Amino acid sequence: MLRQLGEYHESLARAREMIRSKLAYPAFIFHFGILTLSVPLIFKEGVPAFLRATLGRFGVVYLALFVIVVVARSSRRSPRMAP
Q1: Could you give the CA distance from residue 66 to residue 36 in angstroms, rounded to a whole number?
Q2: At 45, phi and psi to the nearest 5?
Q3: pLDDT of res. 83
Q4: Which regions of the chain are under pLDDT 70?
Q5: Looking at residue 53, what is its pLDDT?
Q6: How many angstroms separate the CA atoms of 20 and 13, rounded?
Q7: pTM for this structure?
Q8: What's the sign of the alpha-carbon dihedral 29, 35, 39, 45?
Q9: What is the DSSP letter of 81?
Q10: Which DSSP state fits 45?
Q11: What pLDDT sits at residue 29?
Q12: Does the CA dihedral 38-70-73-8 come out positive or negative?
C-alpha cells in the first residue's frame, strides 16, 4: 500500500511539474506583450503613464487570477451536502 501511495504522489508531482513547464512560455509572452505594448507611452506621455498602464493591466489580471484561485480552493475544501 505504501508503494502505491508513493507512486501516486510521484506521478502527481510529475504532472504538476509538467503543467508548470507548459505554462511558463504563455506567462512570459503575456508579460512581454503588456510591457512591449506599453513602451510607446514612455516616449509619448512619460514614465508615470507607462507605470500606470502596465501596473493597471497586470493588477487587473492578477486580481482576477487571485479570485479564481481563492474560489477554486474554497469550493474544493467546502464540505459537500448530503442528498
Answers
A1: 24
A2: -125, -10
A3: 53
A4: 78-83
A5: 87
A6: 11
A7: 0.62
A8: positive
A9: P
A10: T
A11: 95
A12: positive
**Residue found by looking up cell 507611452 in the block:** 41
Report yes or no: 58 and 34 within 8 Å, Cβ to Cβ.
yes
Q: How many residues does the chain have?
A: 83
Q: Residue 54: which of 68, 67, 71, 41 has the closest Cα?
A: 41
54 vs 33: CA distance, rounded Å: 10
Query: Grid cell 503575456 — which residue?
Result: 30
User: What integer pLDDT is reported at residue 75 of this predicted model?
Assistant: 84
Do the beta carbons of residue 83 and residue 75 sit within 8 Å? no
Burial 13-38 (b: 16+ CB within 10 A, else e): eeeeeeeeeeeeeeeeeeeeebeeeb
Rg (CA), the chain: 20
